[in-house]
Design brief:
It is a single chain. The chain is of the alpha/beta class. α1 links the parallel β1 and β2. The protein has one domain: Sugar-phosphate isomerase, RpiB/LacA/LacB (Ribose 5-phosphate Isomerase B, Chain: A, 3-Layer(aba) Sandwich). The chain is built from six helices and five strands, in the order βαβαβαβαβαα. It binds D-ribose. D-ribose binds next to α3. The site of D-ribose has 8 residues, from α3.
Length: 153
């Protein structure tokens, strides 16, 4: 059972990730995990940086716990999301990385490629991410160094 939290997840996708986002919503509904959908709400073409910005802002403001972003590859979303101060986004297509980016990197955003993973694997990756817990300790020291890079280059 995926870890639940009182705060909803923030979901976002461009047209390349729209169908995967819809599949993830159905999966979260089955699990009773709350989410907020920041779009896109149709399969029409749109720009992933716009969706990354509005979705990640909900995490940075404390309105949402984590964000899950889907585009065609997951890569564009992860590049855009990682430009935002305080966001640690990981593009994953395997369950080990999806789990360990929470355990070791304290990632707060999972990025998935709708043209890379199917709905079944995509939902498995979401579960791996949500079920994992940050281990802290030496990993916190490394995350602090990432924050220092963000602050000072
Ligand atoms: C859109 O065609 C595509 O470029 C986008 O979804 C994403 O894959 C970018 O990284």
């Amino acid at each position: 059972m995926a870890q639940t939290t009182s705060l909803p997840l923030a979901l976002g996708a461009d047209h390349g990730g729209y169908e995967l986002k819809e599949a993830i919503k159905a999966h979260l509904d089955e699990l009773g995990i709350p989410y907020q959908d920041f779009g896109t709400h149709t399969p029409e073409r749109c720009d992933y940086p716009d969706i990354a910005q509005v979705t990640c802002q909900a995490v940075l403001d404390g309105r949402c716990r984590y964000a899950i972003l889907c585009c065609g590859t997951g890569v564009g979303m992860s590049i855009a999301a990682n430009k935002l101060h305080g966001i640690r986004a990981c593009c994953c297509s395997d369950a080990f990385s999806a789990e360990y980016t929470r355990r070791h990197n304290d990632a707060n955003v999972l990025c998935l490629g709708g043209r890379v993973v199917g709905p079944g694997l995509g939902c498995t990756l979401v579960d791996a991410f949500l079920n994992a817990t940050f281990e802290g300790g030496r990993h916190q020291e490394r995350v602090d160094k990432i924050t220092a890079l963000e602050n000072h280059g």
